[in-house]
Amino acid sequence: MVRIAVLLAAPLALAACVQGGANSAPVASGSDGALFVAGKFADTLARIDLATGRETVRVDSCATPHELATSPDDQYVALACYGGTSVDIFRTVGLEKVKSIDLGENARPHGIVWHANGDLYATAEGRKSVFWIKDPLGAAETFEYGTGQEGTHMLVVALDGRHAWTTDLGSKTVTRVDLLTRRAPQSIGVGVEPEGIALAPDGQTLYVSARGSDEVYAIDPQSMEVRKTLAVGDFPLRIAVRPQGDFAVTSDLEDGGLTVIDLADFSVARRITVSSPAEADARFQVTILWSPDGERIYVAETKSDTIAEVDFATGTVLRRLPGTGGGDGMAIVE
């Protein structure tokens, strides 16, 4: 089985950016807005214009950037600097860096959420903790919460900001952190190498994908009881819930596809092929992101320096956008 360490290999040559071959020009679409892509091999942050499919600006970022999050007003994008200790903030127009918030020695921030309340939340994998960054564009006060778990990697935050949940790769656990009372965190074992995590729009169900056991789990976010388990594709690295709350998809890294889950009855609705079996290892799909209207899915193909734009209704790959430098983390503004 492929392991995530492969993703940290040396930078790869720039590959085809769009559907139709290496020498094709980017194609226009009906999409509006911009896609932001972290190039974790090249230490870059790029802005892709969704109307034209072209990269409009790329800047140096920080060491091994991973996940991204946009501010509630869409004016800023925050970047988790996994190879360092900071969360860096850039303007969405022009990508000018406006702030760097240091989280301390060996932080290695990875998962990141810019909450509707205006605050930032990030995992610090090297410190086995979660950080709450209040007023990130102002005073940027930081509060740290230990999980006690190895590999605190991805996170989601409750709609009311009271709790955060993390996937802990090394410990094979999911952890609930109480952000207000600081009660002891609660961790449960979930499959093998749980990594992907998503919260239903109504906040009533937590979904976790375990890449080592090829399963997705529906968990009660308060009792931390596993309600249901579902077998999905091979190596489901990420899971993302459609904004409408009716479906979720997993990025199945080793078979080049997406598993579509009907959340009404927690069943596999269909499979979407993004890459052929022969292409799967060459493209290496990682992060997935829904468009705000739920009509498209963006799939980071980290090895081939591309982002696949997939039509959800038909499962068609509409085009391939630039993902230069090992594009992984993504955020969108429309």
Automatic annotation (TrEMBL):
Tagged with keyword Signal: yes
Pfam families named among the record's database cross-references: Lactonase (PF10282)
Transmembrane segments: none
Domain of life: Bacteria
Signal peptide: 1-15
Keyword field: Signal
Keyword Signal: yes
InterPro entries in alphabetical order: Haem_d1_sf, Host-pathogen_enzymatic-act, Lactonase_7-beta_prop, WD40/YVTN_repeat-like_dom_sf, YVTN_b-propeller_repeat
Name of the protein this chain belongs to: YncE family protein
Organism per entry: Qipengyuania spongiae
